[in-house]
Design brief:
heterotrimer, A mainly alpha, B mainly alpha, C alpha+beta, B: 11 helices, C: six-stranded mixed beta sheet, 24% helix
Chain lengths: 288, 268, 364
């Protein structure tokens, strides 16, 4: 029985083999190796000694490193909240535009993707630096006397994060608001809901999945975009990403880097799990 | 009801302004005579000259382009065949495989870069173009896989069966029928993957090794050590290039539409 | 029967953990025959067709095409072509490329393909449509192109999966006649799938009525319509009423059946019926007579009447609780809701069905 069945599909098996091979070797393989590595001991240089140990995980509990996690989390959270506040209305308004304006807005939104994000961040350096444009403008307006130290600060990092990740949130909100049936909003108004009430009870609830997936799309990368903190924060703030990079290169402690990565991955998986759970519940309630 | 107020237009305008302001600033200073991007001292094209003369920068750009195209092609093959194969085969491990193969999009890049570096070291693969290619393919495959999968889901399975029924072997049916129909998804997935590859810093930094540099890595090191307005010139050129491609693309679409319209009028 | 073209032997097929879709079916189809697989959705008719085409592999059983075992052959290696339910025209190819695709695969030279495509378009009455895209065709035209695309390969068997399902009634009638004409002209074996009994009766040489993965009855339209062997066939094909009764007396080929307080004579042709046996009768609704001179003594209450397709449909309830539908009267019939009327049917209008001796022996 099964013999004839497999025979039928055998002609398509070759198609899937590259994906199987590639995924197992270069995605599953490295991730499994990472977990294994996190239980090993660092040797000299990049060498690793295969003595099973929990030392790397214990080390993360060290207040210095816990602080790093807390700060990364805080930064990611701050950036994500700001991105939500800025991006949600944008995506929502964009969905309400006329078709031709939608196309134009989409083009304007996608265009910067094709310019290297580092170069775009460099633009912010020019703007924020001590003798930069922003300080010039503020001084000319008489708001400040002495130039503010804007660059290489926590707010500068947040600006960079928000700048790089905002389009993802906008696109995510837009794609769910696009599918919104506007007659539902009209129905709510017709039934006596005020403008705000109609938005809150109908539009917002129906676009919530877009907002949530936008949160995932911005929060997870922001935990790992160490280079933004690096070039806009000037080494002042050490994030988990920077710490991992540090341990992989100068620190030469790969097992510890692996342990950090495992913990980071568990945290992000929890986020995704939570997101799935929320959206599933919403679907069950019929508003997903 | 479905109308935007003036306020919302103003809001969108401000966001767009903030989005493009850094780009505009970079472009303006690419024509600045002074090396410092502080004050505009005079119009000059010298940074473009220097950029074209900077062999390291040109090499990095070349590396990035080669890498982008190569990883795009490799992932287009793996991802397209994989998506089609997944739709045809009903193995028990199928959903697990699918999950793992899109995992690179769901975990922070830093983890991916770190584990790939450790893994390539373990396998003793020399760091260079090959490791870059493998690393970029890891995160390019999911984009193409997902695009093609979505397109396949909307395709009538009896089309391929009809081809088989008319005498086409499994490969021929794929080549003649399925591939042309999923091509738009393959192209848009590849474009996305190419853009991501051209922009990637995090993974490249881990797997590029000491001798090879991609453009983003080069820019990153410059930003950390010291920037020259060559970078500004580069940004301007990239924007011009993108706009050029876009213009050619929309012109082609427009011509195609016009041709079709003329054709259908003639038919009637 | 003439020479056998296609033979199915004890075909079984199940999908994953569900009930078996095909429970061991066998069928012989003669050369040039127009056979219809008739049944409601989910009866297994499409699966049967797909197994013949090679798009599914049976779990057990064999398929023979002109005496050759083709069970393990891929669809591309069988001399069988299919007209798909939704036409499955390749959207990125024009009409000529669609029709010529099979020949192109056989490496027929281009001018030859062009010539034969033009002939085919002539045959399906779409001359000059070569350059059209499928999206520019109407449903009926797509249908013709799909038929031409299959026929150009000169298949031994043409499989048609509800090809007229998506067309409106008028077009459907016209296409029925046209398909029949094509089949007569080309002499190709047609295996046709439908759930429409009218279509099956109009077009087929033989009909195979399918239900729950088995054949209920295989026979000519006349046999299926006038001599149904099972209550399923009687109700599905003839919209018949099914009545349970008891055989009281048999003499001169007539059996007197007692049911719901009445006694009715029924002609019994081929089955042997013993006295005292419980029997099942099928009576088509147009044969049920109301309020006529009759001595059978069967009474029924009028429950509902409605007008449909030029006839009055009267739903009656017999004293044993079973339902009886009569549809032989015009709008002027004086039947009122709630009335109790006498009903009867002619001895030759009732058929004994579900005879245990004749029951489908596949179900062992």
């Amino acid at each position: 029985m099964s013999r004839t069945k497999t025979k039928k599909h055998s002609s398509s098996v070759w198609m899937i083999l590259p994906l199987y091979f590639f995924t197992l070797v270069f995605v599953a393989g490295p991730l499994i190796y990472m977990v294994a590595l996190s239980f090993a001991q660092p040797g000299s240089g990049s060498a690793v000694e295969w003595n099973l140990t929990l030392e790397n995980y214990r080390k993360i509990l060290d207040p210095v490193y816990l602080q790093t996690f807390r700060e990364s989390f805080q930064l990611a959270l701050t950036s994500t909240v700001i991105i939500c506040i800025l991006g949600y209305p944008f995506g929502y308004f964009m969905a309400k535009m006329s078709e031709s304006w939608k196309k134009k807005a989409m083009l304007l939104l996608m265009l910067p993707f094709w310019i290297n994000s580092l170069i775009r961040l460099y633009g912010w350096i020019i703007i924020l630096q001590n003798r930069g444009i922003l300080n010039h403008v503020l001084k000319a307006l008489g708001i400040i006397d002495k130039p503010l130290k804007l660059l290489y600060s926590y707010p500068a990092i947040v600006v960079g994060m928000v700048y790089v990740l905002l389009p993802f949130m906008i696109l995510s909100v837009y794609s769910s608001a696009e599918k919104l049936d506007w007659s539902l909003v009209e129905a709510a108004r017709d039934l006596g809901a005020g403008k705000a009430k109609a938005f809150w009870t109908v539009s917002f609830k129906l676009t919530l999945p877009g907002l949530l997936s936008g949160v995932i799309l911005t929060f997870i990368p922001s935990m790992g975009l160490f280079f933004i903190a690096d070039i806009l924060g000037g080494n002042k703030i050490v994030l988990v990403g920077s710490l991992i990079q540090e341990q992989m290169t100068r620190g030469s402690n790969w097992p510890f880097a692996a342990a950090l990565a495992v913990v980071l991955m568990i945290l992000t998986s929890l986020m995704i799990g939570l997101y799935r759970k929320i959206t599933n519940v919403k679907e069950l309630e019929g508003i997903g | 009801m479905k109308k935007n107020s003036k306020l919302s237009s103003l809001y969108m305008g401000i966001i767009f302004f903030l989005m493009y302001m850094p780009v505009a600033v970079v472009i303006i200073f690419s024509f600045n005579e002074s090396k410092l991007p502080v004050r505009f001292t005079g119009f000059s094209l010298k940074w473009y000259q220097e950029l074209l003369g900077d062999s390291a920068m040109i090499e990095a750009l070349g590396n990035s382009l080669i890498l982008g195209v190569a990883s795009c092609l490799v992932s287009a093959v793996i991802g397209t065949l994989g998506a089609v194969g997944l739709s045809r085969i009903h193995w028990k491990t199928k959903s697990a495989l699918e999950y793992i193969s899109i995992l690179p999009l769901m975990i922070p890049e830093i983890i991916l870069g770190m584990v790939l570096m450790a893994f390539f070291y373990l396998l003793n693969i020399p760091f260079g173009m090959l490791t870059l290619l493998l690393g970029h393919t890891v995160f390019c495959v999911p984009y193409i896989l997902m695009e093609v999968k979505a397109r396949l889901a909307g395709m009538d399975p009896s089309l391929e069966e009809a081809a088989r029924d008319l005498g086409a072997g499994s490969f021929r049916a794929f080549w003649d029928i399925t591939l042309p129909l999923i091509m738009p998804a393959v192209v848009s997935g590849s474009l996305l993957a190419f853009a991501m590859s051209m922009d990637d810093v995090v993974i490249s930094i881990f797997v590029n090794g000491p001798r090879i540099s991609t453009l983003p890595v080069k820019v990153y090191t410059q930003l950390k050590t010291g920037v020259t307005p060559e970078i500004n010139a580069l940004c301007t050129l990239m924007l011009v290039f993108t706009l050029g491609v876009l213009a050619v693309y929309s012109l082609a679409v427009w011509l195609l539409k016009r041709k079709n319209r003329l054709f259908s009028i003639k038919e009637k | 029967m003439t020479e056998i073209c296609l033979e199915l032997k004890d075909i079984r097929k199940g999908f994953s953990d569900e009930e078996e879709v095909l429970k061991g079916i066998s069928l012989s189809i003669g050369k040039g025959e127009f056979i219809t697989l008739l049944g409601s959705s989910g009866c297994g008719k499409t699966t049967t067709l797909r197994i013949i085409a090679g798009l599914e592999t049976p779990d057990a059983g064999r398929v023979f095409l002109e005496g050759k075992d083709v069970t393990d052959l891929n669809p591309e290696d069988r001399d069988v072509n299919t007209v798909f339910q939704n036409y499955a025209l390749f959207p990125h190819m024009n009409v000529a490329d669609n029709i010529g695709y099979g020949l192109k695969l056989k490496k027929v030279p281009k001018p030859e393909i062009k010539k034969r495509v033009a002939e085919m378009l002539e045959l399906v009455q779409l001359p000059g449509y070569e350059k059209r895209k499928p999206s520019e065709l109407s449903g009926g035209q797509k249908q013709r192109v799909a038929i031409a695309r299959a026929l150009i390969n000169n298949p031994r068997v043409l499989l048609l999966d509800e090809p007229l399902g998506a067309l409106d009634l008028q077009l459907r009638r016209a296409m029925q006649a046209e398909l029949k004409r094509l089949q007569k002209k080309l002499g190709i074996t047609f295996i046709y799938i439908t759930h429409d009994q009218e279509e099956a009766i109009n077009m087929s040489d033989r009909i195979a009525v399918m239900n729950h993965g088995t054949f209920e009855q295989i026979g000519t339209p006349d046999e299926i319509y006038n001599h149904p062997r099972t209550s399923y066939v009687a109700t599905f094909v003839g919209n018949a009423n099914i009545l349970k009764g008891k055989a009281e007396r048999t003499e001169n080929g007539k059996v007197t059946v007692a049911l719901a307080g009445g006694r009715l004579p029924v002609v019994c042709e081929d089955s042997v019926i013993r006295e005292g046996e419980t029997v099942t009768l099928a009576v088509r609704s147009e044969n049920v007579r109301i309020r006529e001179e009759c001595t059978c003594g069967l009474m029924a209450k009028v429950e509902e009447k409605s007008f449909a397709a030029g006839q009055l449909r009267v739903v009656l309830r017999l004293s044993d609780g079973s339902e009886l539908v009569a549809s032989r009267y015009g709008i002027d019939a004086k039947v009122e809701q709630g009335q109790t009327v006498s009903v009867c049917f002619a001895p030759e209008d009732a058929v004994f069905v579900d005879r245990s001796g004749e029951e489908k022996n596949e179900q062992d």
